[in-house]
Amino acid sequence: MKNYRNILWASVLGATMLSTTSCRDDFADINSSPTQVTKAEPSYLFAQAVMDFEPYSYTYWFYDEPMLLSWSQWGVPTGSYTDNFKLTTAVGGVNFINVLKYAREIEYVRSTLSEEDAAKHAATAACVDVLACFLGIAASDINGDIQFTEAGRGAHEGVLTPAYDRIENLYNLWLEQLDASITTFTTAQDQIFTSNQDVVYRGDVKKWAKLANSLKLRIAARLISQNKAKALEIASQVASASCGYIDALDEAMLFNKCTVNSSSSDYIYHWSNGFMEGTGANQRVIDFMLENRDPRVRFCYQKNDWNSKIVQEFYDQGKEIPSYIEQNVEYTTDANGKKTFVKWIGMGEPWVRYYGLPVEYNAKNNTNLYGEWYDYSNKYKITDSEGQSAKTYLPFSMFQQQMIIGRTYNFTMPTPPGGPVITKNESRPWYGMYVGGAEVNLYLAEFKLLGANLPKSAEEYYNQGLRLSVQEYDKAAGLNQIAYYGTTYDYDPNEVSIELKAGEIDAMMASEDYQLTGTPAEQLEKVYLQQLLNFTLYPYDQFVTARRSGLPKFNSAFISRENYSSVPVTEIPRRFQTGVPNETSLLYAIEKEAYAVQGYTESAAGATNTTILNSERTWQDKGAPQWGEGPKN
User: Fold this and answer.
1) How far is CA 234 from CA 116, 179, 225, in A?
2) For the whole model, what pTM was predicted?
């Protein structure tokens, strides 16, 4: 998908959309009714910009994420890895223009005001600039250069064919904009900026300043292969900035956009469509998290279907259960050979409900070795006593969709055929986690290990990052009320709820694999692995981290990448296809030049020559380690 495919539509429609003043229906405490506003007002433009702030849209999760997880080998196709996993499909991308156009409109509106009145909206403008920078970084992660500085300028300036900006220049621009926003947040006085119009931080400009400062680390991380010295300098500036950075649970960018909205209920719930239905958890990732008692496994992945009632039903029907599940079952056997479930052993509930899919190549077709995982639709299907009501039970974990969407909160308790029907179907306002202190501290731990001049030790940043990561995921899971959080639904007496329990973080951090010890190379790998774990539900950031770190690494002592002889890593993409420019488009020449400047061969989705997507890299990816190579110090 082109980053700016709908530029003409946006330019023409932008003026109409920007005059829309009602982005929320809960304006009870705002002085002016939106229905009475006849011209664009910065505060309302800001509120709508927040509504349209969407780095992780449905099209991203449906198209992009399954590909990126397969390429980075952090997720596994439910049909196992085969020759076609390297191929691209249609893509979603990040639609940053929806927010950028509001930044342009606020800029225009302020230009029509007196200097004194325009100054009162400085904080509002700074907030939208921060959101635009956030989305710009994500939009450029996979495709490289994007249209930004001239984009969104059709309504008032007539720019209908914006030029592409080089990503190196955009990083410099965004750093300048973030610094300018921090200055505004920390110095501007007499601002028209109230908590009622800010659903992100409720008017707390100090937290906005910390967000802006923290986002600079995302740019620094993306510079590490191109300009390491500058990346470390940025890290030093962030750590020493007087405004501070996100370093506490209540400072995270974690919010719900609204609870009532007449224009689109997607603002409330995120959306209702299914997604990621063909991608399961990676066995090696899940095993690593379980071995180290990492509570995040319960927030990022779903419990499988095998509660103790299902185990007993299979025993009652004389059916086999997956051997890897039965390893965690204590049972008795009577004289007739019938088994009776006694209790869970091993780590016990809820840990024994999480399993990943093997990453071995073409595993689905090797039923002798991997049938327990991939042939479940045949092996683990049972009926009631009359041969009716057939049900199949998933023996592995999928990604936790209820952390991504709130509409139609669907949950059905796994019960035997003919058993009780226990469901929970309701729509819940969705809370999105965008930036947290875990990400910030883990970046600082990385930069400290790489030589940045920072006030704390790498271990201090690392430990703080781990603690906050678990706390942030637990908080988001609680706000979104994902399945089994705080409840067992009173069905299976052996079921255990999944919310964070006292002492679990300390137990996790006591594991040797989670302590920042070992050789310098091992310490750096540990930091990157924790970034990857923390980014499980941060879409592009996880892929970028895998790409720039070369993790998972071949033959790693922690999480090892599988090397496929039939698909060399040089054929596994690191960016999407360009698409083929349309000769009838006004952007035709601009797109052709942009691809040529970046050294890209034009290609369409599904093209089989994927080596160009590995060798013809985005600017920020040039010089980064190859898949499986591991970090460069």
Assistant:
1) 33, 11, 14
2) 0.93
Asked whether residue 289 is domain-assigned, the answer is: yes
* CB contact at 8 A, 495 and 307: yes
Phi-psi group of 279: left, alpha or beta (phi > 0 → left; psi -120 to 50 → alpha; rest → beta): beta
Is there a domain that residue 186 lies in?
no
Dihedrals phi, psi of 134, to nearest 5 degrees: -55, -50
Whole-angstrom distance, CA of residue 581 vs CA of residue 588:
6
Q: How many structural domains compose the chain?
A: 1
Q: 126 lies in a domain?
A: no
Q: β-strands 553-554, 560-561: how paired?
A: parallel
* Two tokens, residue 116: 């004194």
Render pLDDT for 445-482 as a digit per residue (tens, 0 to 9): 999 999 999 999 999 999 999 999 999 999 999 999 99
287: burial class by Cβ within 10 Å (0-12, 13-18, 19+)? middle
CA max distance for the chain: 92
Report the C-alpha gap between 276 and 545 in whole angstroms.
Answer: 20
Count of CB atoms situated within 10 Å of the CB of 256: 18
Under a CB-based contact definition with an 8 Å cutoff, are residues 268 and 406 in contact?
yes
Q: Hey, what are 488's tokens?
A: 């067992």
Domain of residue 287 covers: 279-426
In a domain, 334, yes or no: yes
β partners of residue 282:
357
